[in-house]
Amino acid sequence: MMGGCAAPPTGKPAPKATPEELSDRRSAYERELDHLAKNPASAPKVEKLWRGETREKLISLSFDDGPRPEWIEKLLTILKANDVKATFYLVGKMVKLNPDQARKIAADGHEIGNHSYSHPNLSKVSDQDVLEEILAAQNTIRSVTGVTPVTMRPPGGNISQAVLAANRKAGLVAIEGTTPAQLTTRKFDPPPQWSPADGGYVGLLH
Ligand SMILES: [Zn+2]
User: Fold this and answer.
1) pTM for the predicted model, two decimal places
2) Residue 157: Cβ within 10 Å count
3) How far apart are alpha carbons 20 and 17 in whole angstroms?
4) Is residue 2 scored above 60 in pLDDT?
5) Over the stretch 150-165, which tens digit does the pLDDT of each residue have?
């Protein structure tokens, strides 16, 4: 299914994180700060991308919000049967809940990206929460899979200055998708002009 991330219905606030979730996020964030103090991340060359840097007619597949046990095994089997590698934008707390599935994604050679720790709208939380969300996801993904993500997709495509600042600290590049809906609804500066003939399409799937 193509489209943006699942967002709470308009008018209804997102469910509040439980005290336990907040404490998990906080401890993963603090571990990541320790890690960064010992292994500073190098600043990415670009801050955000919405398509691949290629004119070749190549498509990049990316799957958000996992690992979801209800479909991940089936999806990994299909990808392997077709010799396709994809990028999985994983949610930190989902990785914690489904560590075997997260490790299977890494073992199959797919790229793993950061999709925040608990999937909030990062443009609606404090700068400190943005930093905690991104660094806690980074720490959880690395400690479970052994992979340090180099790209980050904010939930709902909500890139803000706080997201870019946190990403710089973690050495992450923000990634959108090249979907027609995003090209018309997201605010880009400048708005991207893209046609399928340009190549480098980043498909965003769930
Ligand atoms: Zn999402």
Assistant:
1) 0.86
2) 21
3) 8
4) no
5) 999 999 888 899 999 9
Measure Cα distances from 157 to 36, 50, 160 in Å.
26, 10, 9
Ligand 1 centre to CA of 190 (Å) is 24
CA of 63 to the centre of ligand 1 (A): 9
Residues 56-77: tens digit of each pLDDT:
778 888 999 999 999 999 999 9
Distance 191 CA to ligand 1 centre (A): 22
Q: Ligand 1: distance of its center to the CA of 122 in Å?
A: 11
Under CATH, which architecture does the 19-185+198-205 domain have?
Alpha-Beta Barrel (3.20)
Ligand 1 centre to CA of 157 (Å) is 8
In the block, which residue shows the tokens 């399409």?
A: 201
Question: Is the distance from CB of 2 to CB of 203 less than 8 angstroms?
Answer: yes
Range list of H helices, the chain:
19-38, 72-81, 92-97, 99-107, 127-145, 161-170, 180-185
Q: How far is the CA of 27 from the centre of ligand 1 (A)?
A: 22
Q: Which residues surround ligand 1, an ion (CB under 5 A)?
A: 5, 64-65, 155
